[in-house]
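Researcher: First entry.
Model:
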Amino acid sequence: MSPRVFLFLLLFFILGNFVNCQIKYVSGPQEVSITAIEPLNQFSWYPTSSKYSNCEVELKVLLENSNGEEPPGYLLNTSSIKITNINENQFILSTSIPFNLAQFSIDVNSSTGLTSFNINLSCNKIDFNKTKPQIIGNGPGYNDFENFHSFLKIDGFDGVKPKTFLTDETVGIIESIENSDLYLIKWSPYYIPDHLKGEWSIEIFDSLGGGNYFKTNSFYNDVPTPPNNFQNGAYLPKNISSIINEFGFGFGPLYMGKVLSNSNRPFLVISNGNLSYYGTPTRGTKQNMDFICSFIENEPFNGINSTEFAINSPAGQYSSQIIYDSLIIKKYLPGQIVGLSYQMVTNVVTLNVFVENYKLNEYIYKINENQVIKGFPFGFYSGNNTNFKIYVSGFLNTIQNDQLILTCKSLTLSNSLSVPSLTPGDPTPPKLTNFTILQLSPLKYLLKLHIVSKNELFQINSFPTSDSIEKIGLESLVSGDFFEGDYEIILSTRSLHKIQLIDKNRNKIEYDNFDIISLNPISTFTSPFISYKFDLNDFNDISFSINDLNLLNNTGYNIMYIKSNTLKKDVPMSLMLLDPVSISINENIRFPINYNYESELFECKFIIPSNNIFGEIPYVILFSISGKIYNSLLSSSAQLRVNQTYLDNQGPLISLILKNYTIDSISGPGFVGWTFRIFDDYNGFESGFIKVMGSIDNSIYNFNITLNDLIYGDKWNGTYKIEIPIDETCISQEFVITHVTLLDSNKIPSIFNIYSENQKSISNPFINFYNDGIIVTRLPITCSSIYPQVTNKPEIIDLKLSTQTIDVGKLTNRSVTLSITFNLTDENNFNHNSNPIFYLTSPTLDLIECEATMEQVILGTIRFICEVEIPIGFGYPGPIFISIYGLVYKNGYFTGYSTSDLLFVGNNKHYLNTTFSLNNPIITSHDQVYSYGGKIWLYGFGFNQNQTVYINYLNGSLNNDNFHAIDSISTYSRAFTITIKETEHPFIIRIISFEGIRSNEYFINPILFISPPPPPQTQTPLPTNTPQTCKGNPQCGGPKQGYCSSNGCICYSPWVGLSCQSKVVIVPPPKLNENDPSINITKPSNGIDDDSVSFSALVSIVSLRELDFKNNIIKTYKFDKWIQTKLNDNQYQYIINLQTSFNNGTILNCTTTVITEWFNSTTNITFANQNLIMNPSSLKYNINITTYPFENQLNTLQLIIQAKAISNEIDYNSCSSKDFGDTVTDNSNYVQLKVNDNSLYGRFIKRAIVDGNLNSINNIILNDQIDDDDDDDDSATTYYSSESLIAISIPYYKKLIQLDPDFGILLDSESANSICKENINNKLSTGAIIGIVLGCVGGAILITIAIFLAKKYKYQLRNIKPLKLKKMKN
């Protein structure tokens, strides 16, 4: 059966069963059917919040007709349920239902008649008694996205779960985390100040009206009191309670001060009851940190003239009233949009806007889904800054089925209009008929679409979120054409919520999750990254190569390790650091997490910026589209900590600014400008950019600043200068600094924009001048020249394009030269220092700028020319519109020409046609490449499986001819991957196609990553036995058997024991057992048959069990079916595999190898750096265990060993005993099980080799029964037998553990006397914990030693039952 048929049958079975159960046919023709497709398999809901008593249901259904009729029918609206058409086959049913069950009737009208269905839905009450919510994680956390937060885990929701719960919002709010059973608690800033110590408690109500309190320790519980001590608090500007003047649009006032705290996040918040702003650490170290807090940021124009803000901190509460004077603020507001109209000529639509008082701001121009944001000179048609026109042209197809929405927006004011539909065309929308999603890396995937469009495809849009849009160029076409073609699109793994297809007639269709794209077989548009449900238990253990970091002038190169037995190895995961410095540099940087098949761990190599915050570094692990796990959810062992650092989280600041001079009159050339000092006391200044504009003529001056421009000082405190040339033709105006970006050596920016959205006041480089006001950025000049008013635009005499058609899919020949000639009406007043700009505009409003240069001026005419290379795929399939703006006269009058103006120049010079060749290999981009090498993905166009990839490692030189071929691992039309070697130097990639077409040479400069050393193995101190008192009578057995030392009795061979009164028994080598590792050792008695025995000793390694950190048993394993190999006469090998299966289908083999070795004579050996003496007739076990699948790094293993000694000599004086303790000479433990005068003696060295390192381990004496439900009495300790269970505690390990116990038989000088036949009721002594240093065993092995000591003149062989293995619990 083919996979597609199987998938269809599976879907049919699943969906069909739910149709039968939840959507029921009632009456009418049965050719029509309704199937629920989203939520799949779900007809049960909960209220969106526990404060509601009904459920908002939205059910997506599929309508089908077995006759193949299209459309299959129509759903008829009812009063109780709303029906929304997605397309002919899909509908959304929306309704609100009360608690308990509800039934709705749906009628379908088809060609065969009216068919009725009943839909059964249920609305469940939220009952915490059933779901058992609990706060989990490592206590409250903090990051700049969620602020103070905790996590609530709620299991057991049988249906679409609630999004939030009713609670006291002055304490906190609850938000659902998608694709999980977790909720986020965001603690209110109004609650925290009064609860800095002790517990944080929030009451959450369920649908039954009951309130449950959920508690967690305060974020500051472990911080020494007081957690906050604020000093030197100050406002900027200083007079905060008086009228203030913004320092640029959206730059609100600031509060700053020093904090003496042991917490890296002391509590500082400013709020006015509606909005709250948390403080940001800027510089300093533990107990001495500068903080800054901005408020009213980006929202000063909401009509509020005054408002009261409170500053809350544990050191006290302060409040101030901030009063706005709207007149002062309006001085720097953008001008008002007076009107908006449009005109259309053929396929060009032009927005016409009238504006007053231009304030050097930008405008947003929007045509339907597409927009462009630009300031002067784009769109500036004619006028001056007091009163002017804006004309912007865009592409318009001659047939539109949808009205056009044209918008022009300044930062504060917007104006829109609708253009009525033109002559309607064919209304058939495009159709997605097939799609494939291929994951390329943890950060990128390839979306392959097959699209059929009757009216030619015009645009593809993807939606990273529900309210954001990402344009996809049609150069993504890899085969076919715009009527039917295949497209390959590279997108982020967290960016696909839905796609939108638009054709040239503006017919649109959207494909959201679970939308049907094919009925035969059934196929839905579903990303595997959307529906991936994560579980905190997926993350068994997280650790770092280095912790407790030193970031003092050191970059933190590190590796995260994630152990998981359930996560799919290709799940798209990435790491995002949330420390303040990483967010300041780039809050969107993500580090990929890849599975390492060698270490069997997920690994992430990441870089922490130097001079960062002290304490814990917050981070989040991102996977699928919405999955995220914050570090505050994880155990303390998963926290990343910084011990040594000095925080520098503020970009360079301007500490001194001087205006060179103000000009009253100018008689000749000169310069004006600013001298300023840039201060950055720790990281130091690196580079910057400053933009200055003229307030009247809109002249633009751009300055790039580096350390090479330093006049005096150094990078930490240096003086620089910018100068603007001025001559006698100047105009009286102000030069205005409109933009500043300064970067320190850590790439932390300080940014100033006079007008911009989303300003960050704390990053303003002019913070030190808040008291002086924005006037420091304005330099007035007064010139004596007076210029006449210009009223007429220059006439275009000629417009030339070097080509009318350009192939934007070729590697070369994508350049175009544009030239334009004007007839100047007032040549003397024309500003020859200001060059116009050619703009090339795509149909989706993408722009290319080409600054023209003046080529010649002849008899009142002036000619400008520019040459520009068109980017790959730009504008395709065209046309690319031409416009030119920025001609300026000396009196400030400006003029420009939209595409509609160029229509009348003739010969279609207003646009470029585009084509796109599919077979030219071109590399355009790549994923981030680090110096550690490995697999990298490159993106572009025209790749194929038959291409040859070449690489040139420059190795510090510029030798561009040293290319050699390398393998391409995976290749698609838009992407391919290669493996590169480790290198810190740049390298070049190029491709030669099968047809011999050579690609561009693509230069890559890898990001330096210095691999950290492997994490040091934490080793417990190797044990040393404490000195013992010499025992025995005589002491130490007398001078022939041993002597007394400072550590205890030292025995002479063959004597052993604490008192040197047990003697090693010499027996023949055992015989091999071919079925299992059981060994029978016998000692013949003089003249007696070998079968005549009086004593047997049995040792069984019976089970392996895993324990959690509370010593609760999680799993238990037993072992059978050994593979046996004879190595030599005295050595045998036994191997067994333990297989563990996981939910994702992964199978892990844990192999146990046991080698038994018999010693015929005294032998000195070494194990784990401990010298050992092997006595004659002793048996040693060498046990090696490979990787065991621990559920958690905190878990341990126990290897259960059962030892038993049994005597066949039974008389009135028979007795048994057992003893446990430390040896004297070899730092081991011993176990001695004695019956009469014979005993089994086992030695356990107190160390093991764990992953190649020496580690200490322990042994524990257990109760005599492994399983409480076992009724077998044979294993009980009696007067004729002695038995013990020993658990060898095994620590967590990763790859391999090695053990080395040994056993022998002793003849004792003193008989046992603990449990005797004459006093059968004597009780056993309690077992104690003994320190056995053994490692981790991944299998259970049974090795039985039967030593039969025949005694002359004694009893016949007693019928001894074999030792029975207990039934293991799984």
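Researcher: Second entry.
Model:
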Amino acid sequence: MSQKSSNISGTLALTPLRRWIEAEAKKQISARQYAGFGEKRKNEMILRKTAVAYGIAELVRHARAHPSANPRSVGEQCCIDNFVVRTLPDDAAAAGRTPRSSSWNDVKGLDMLLPGRSLNIVEPFFLRSSFSDVSSGSDQEGQTSGSGEQEDGMGKYLEVEFFPPRPDDAAGGESAAVSQREEDSRCHLLGVLLYELFSHLSPYPGARFSESELENGGDVLTEPARKKARTLDPTCIAEHLSNSAQVEDEIQEQTHSAVHKSSCIPLRELGFPSSICLLVQNLLECGEGDRPEDAYDSLDSVIKDLHLLLLDPSRFLFDHEPTLENGSIQLSFRKHLLYGRENEVSSITDAFCRVSSGKSEAFFIGGFSGSGKSMLVNSLTARVDMTEGYVLTHKFDQKYTRSKERPLLEVISLFNDLCLLIKQKRSQQDLLVIIKNLTEVFGTDFSVLAQLLPNIQALSSELKQTGDEKKESGDQMNLRSVCFTLKHFMSVVSSKSHPVMLFLDDLQWCNNSALTVVESILCDLSVSSCLFFVGSYRNTEVQDDHAIFPLMDSLSASGIPTTKLSLEGLNPEDLNTLVSDAMGMFPRICEPLSDIVYQKTKGNPFFVLEFLRSLVDGGLLKYNAKKRRWVWEEDRISSMDITGNVLYLLSSKMNGLSENIQSALKVAACFGIKIKESVVGYLSTDSDYSNIHDGLEQAVREGFMIKIMGTADFKFVHDKVREAAYSLITDTEKNKYHYNLGMLLYSTTKGSDIDDIVFSIADQINHGIDDDSSVKSPDLRIDLADLNEMAGAKAVDCSDNVTSRSYLNIALSLLPSDHWKSHYNRSLRLSFLLAKASYLCGDVKKAQGILQEILGECHCIEDKLPAYSLIVSILNACGEGRDAYIACQEVLSQLGEEIPESLDTKQATKMIEETSKMVQCISETDLLEMKEMDEKLSITLKFYSLMATVSFFAKADMFGFLACRCVQLTMKHGICKYSIMGFVQYSTMFCGNNIAKDITAASRIGKAAICCMKKRFHSAGLMPKICFAYYGFVAFHTEPLQSCADMLRQGFDAGMSSGESTTAFFNATQHIKTALIAGEKLKTLLEKVDYYLELADQYKNELAKIYLLIFRDTLSTLIDKGESTSLNSTNKNANNENALKQANFSEVMYFHRAIQAYWLGHSERCHHYVGKMLQTASAPGRLNSIMVMFIHGLNSFQVLKRQNTAKLRAIPKNAIATLKAANAHSRWNFRNKVHLLEAENFSFQGNHDEAKASYAAAITSARCSRFIHEQALACELAGFHYIKMGDLRSACGFLNQAKQCYAEWGSQIKVDSVTRQLENLATGRMMS
């Protein structure tokens, strides 16, 4: 052995190949003395020899590609004595103990002596320990080590390292040209060598082993082979190999044709696996004159086959009993392996990895049916689970396009299931954190979230939906509120540590509403949370105008990383790998069959599988037990006409099934991709379907269906299988078949709770509802109308108004033409439900038409009330406040209430005084203990509350009267949830009314009402209105502005979640105004405004957009005069101002102009706009008016420098008086403002000591109240005061503080202004 091989050997044992073969035989003889010897040890031996064969073949190829300086003949290279095996030492045997259980991993390398070559057999470090040991197969005598289904067998991916390395090794190219004749000779001689390696025998005529050698190898030989071997010459092989160099030419001349003859014992007879037999046989055939097709054409092919045997020995190396299904032999497919999709798997995996790092992404997969879209996504689920993420999966069903649009309902159901997944996978500590975060996001009222996702209650009893009150029209959720609620829910439960993968399969059957939910959640979670959306669709079944493509464009435009992938059929090479794996045969042997399969199926993976199964079923592809391999009839398969359609194969197979199985498949297909256990149970009670469960079980055994894990539901294995089963029903019979199934279920389930299958029953019946011959009986039509009403109501409860509208339309169509006369109550109920569903779907025109029809047909005012309520909500949402006010007035008049057109001051004063006396001592306890108001009066109060809400903007002079009337009715007749709104409206009036202004009483009544709402009543629809009224107009008098701003934000969220979008945007504008006054950072506030603007644009709320754009203009001005933050919409802002003037909201415009002018230092302009606002201000006690008086007072000192008049001198006094009055109720909000006004007044009057103390107090109190902007302002004005006093050092200190605070606030324009003042101080050129 060469020195080079010694250097790389280390502590390994070096054994000549011939002696190593003998040692292998002795190991087996010794091992037979101990328990456990059998098939397992034999398989270990075969694996070790295969590894050695692999190394030999690599060395021979390497010697061929890189000839040495002293080239040796091929025969000399392929001699058995030219090789040395490097293995782990057997210490146990040396010590006389029980022989170590040799593993095939013991073989670590080989050396070729002439020419000197060495190689290590290694497993790449990144793949180590990825396979189990050979013992994973079987430990029992006589059993095979693994079946074809054993995917984690005892193989390894191996590579070789050559020594010494050569410069051209890395290039991988051939360095020496070889003729085919020489290659054939080399392959043949390699076959001779491998024959000896495996059998311990020589393939040469007349050769035989000695008795001792026969005994050593006897375990491998079968008894007939052993007897045959005894007749061979025991000395021939030794003499031949010892003189191999001299007789090489003789070998090449004589053995090319003789080795394969009868004197050579076939390895199959010696008990070797068919794969080894075939490999050696095909090598030996290379020496024959008439070369068979399967003979090897190169060493490269040999090495590929040997490597495959080592990679997956349980499938390719060892013989195993083929899979039996229903008594017949079947192919052994790798069920979870994706062939030819390596790049696609990498792409989707990389996308998810990006998501789990903190960013949401979308991944769309297009492809024809059966191309493996679902399998590609499923390949990722284990990784998602490993990262502690959640997988939500739904497959849309084609059947719904024929009856109901239910995709939205199904998507909502996925998020409902997510609650259970969270409960299952998260610790109790994690759940407490989630509950806390949900509380912060949704507030204390979880009714909206619990209505949408009932399973949220599983997380904690604290999250249970409160109250069982009847839902009002305003409480119903529309699509937008569903989106809003879900994205807030997802912002809590999804994160980098717990990402969510949402997989929606077959998007071509999905409607716009479900995709809108996906878009909303993705676009909102692009930064803060982790959602990986995967959508697959059949690109051959979608038109260019399908909603999938606008969704892709929208996500990309919103900055959501979006990947688009298209799956094609398998290429011929990958398809051949699939066929090879299924049969456990070398790929080169399978190529002829694979080529035919590719021509027939065009590489469609699902089609390929079904075609191969059909060949097995038809006997054209079968397992030959004698040859221990699969064989096929190539000509007959090639001539088959299968029309290029997998449905043909599946339908043909189904037609050969028993009538019971066919019936079960047809029934299941009518219900879509899956059929529920409860449906099967009800059907089985009828004699025609008594065996349906057995039929479905047989369908499972036939491979057409599966049982869904964790349930007893049945599901088709593929939608093409479902289509094939559905095609068993003729087109002319389909509607009737559906109808009969539905009617059978309907009659069977009468009197039972069918809540879980009401959609299934209605869908089946509705398939045949248009057939006049099906539904003739008037009574039956009424029954079916009631069934559809039940389905529609359930859809509403699930917040799927699109589906609800569809069912309700069918229900109304089943009523007779005179239904308003013959079925009045049913018509009223259905019409109102349909109007509500239409409105919530965004079809306002249809909703109004139905409501007008209801008003025209109703017999009494009581029956009209729900319609009137919905009409008022619609009018108010559309900005038609005056019409809404008139509608309320009309209703209340019919209810016996007198509503004056207007009130004079005397009447208003009297009513307020009367009401004040009634509530002067009211408390939270009183409200909680007050008796319940009767239903009729509560309806009256409802319309008073609606009318008061509308009048706040449309007829402000009547707001006080309406609020007082609500309170009076409550105090006299008891309380209801609308009383709460009345009390809050009353407190709002009490704060802003000059006649009887009592801040303390107003705050007390408002707080008591809100506490009563939380403890006694639970109405998601009222919460946004209450937040707007109380926290926008009352709470700022007594509660910190920051808290008010946060509650207004919650009011916005509550309104969006409950469908009260109009009130939600009222909360949004109040939130921005309050947060601005509270000193929230300007850039954060600008982001919130842009968020509100985006939603206002989606909801087409033009009034909210006008308000928000004005706020945005103010914010961008305060930040940097709009240089980097402006929308470049000067003309648009001018239009907004005109619109505000026309809407009598000039006060808002003047307020913003005054604020901008003051902060920019334009004192005259500020004075002008403040004067305008005070002239138009409708309620002096509102926050706007108080803040304007504050600014007016500060600004007046600058104006007084130029014109000192008595009128101007009165302004600061009035401002101080106003702020002191406000400070009496909330020192937090107004104390610093009083100090600053007084400081400026002292400074103006020359009282420097008093001014100094007041400036310090203003700075301190502003800092304590977290008003960073007013802290900056106080520092700036203090700096100016000290400049006037000549104390430039103190002035610089205060101005630097101001600069720092302005920077923290985010006002670059003020930072620059103060910087200029400091520069002027530094140069001694301070401007006066």
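Model: Note on the second entry: The chain has a mean pLDDT of 83.
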